[in-house]
DNA sequence: TTGACATATCGTAAATCATCGATATAATGG
DNA sequence: CCATTATATCGATGATTTACGATATGTCAA
């Protein structure tokens, strides 16, 4: 796992929609319906479901998920046609720790 | 103390120079010379000293300090001609806590 | 192979940010 | 009051971000 870049992370977090996505992904079962036989917790939520809740286009949603991924805040898994995104809890705690001790 | 706005805070932190200022202010004695009879720890560091270390103009430094202040990350005290800035440690811990528990 | 669907990428216009120089405001000393 | 010094604000310009529609790519099912 590559070291986190605080600036990149803070930029990723500087946007309402991306913050919203992260909050939804914190408890996928509470915010998204089940999708096939896929474990929401282990694998994540697909782009279409996130697009449906966000009030934005598929294009924007996909790009925002990429930003979150480049910042290391989420992880993507492709299964068939779908790409599932889930949070990287470890990275999120690392950021909290960075602010708490190093900032 | 008004509640923190995470987006505003993250925007404030999304900039190398502003992050740098916050890090310097974490340990003012290590980064700034003494200024008159003012307690660096209690009162803070004046804009000129920060400007001198940043490689930017006084105008930019002043604006960046305002951004940090609006985000609640620093506190300003005017004494005579000088304005001294110090970190708001409580706000910084609040942000760490927000990421750790609520994000 | 083709068609249909899910996702990613590209190109763009508008909004916001970074940073500066010029100038305004505030406080001090003479 | 005046000159000087410290800080804040204004106005400008280039860079980055936002968010979109159009299009490309990848995958499955028939």
TrEMBL record, chains A, B:
Residues 1-103 form the HTH arsR-type domain. The keyword Cytoplasm does not apply. Keywords: DNA-binding, Transcription, Transcription regulation. InterPro entries: ArsR-like_HTH (IPR011991), HTH_ArsR_DNA-bd_dom (IPR001845), HTH_MetalResp_TranReg (IPR051081), WH-like_DNA-bd_sf (IPR036388), WH_DNA-bd_sf (IPR036390). Gene3D superfamilies: Winged helix-like DNA-binding domain superfamily/Winged helix DNA-binding domain. It comes from the Bacteria. The keyword Transcription regulation applies. SMART domains: HTH_ARSR. GO terms for molecular function: DNA binding. It holds the Pfam family HTH_5. This is DNA-binding transcriptional ArsR family regulator. It comes from Paenibacillus forsythiae.
């Amino acid at each position: 796992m590559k070291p986190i870049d605080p600036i990149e992370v803070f930029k990723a977090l500087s946007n309402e929609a991306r913050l919203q996505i992260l909050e939804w992904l914190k408890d996928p079962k509470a915010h998204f319906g089940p999708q096939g036989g896929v474990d929401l917790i282990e694998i994540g939520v697909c782009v279409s479901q996130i697009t449906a809740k966000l009030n934005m286009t598929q294009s924007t949603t996909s790009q925002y998920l990429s930003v979150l991924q480049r910042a290391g805040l989420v992880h993507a898994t492709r299964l068939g046609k779908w790409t599932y995104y889930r949070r990287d809890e470890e990275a999120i705690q690392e950021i909290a720790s960075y602010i708490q001790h190093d900032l």
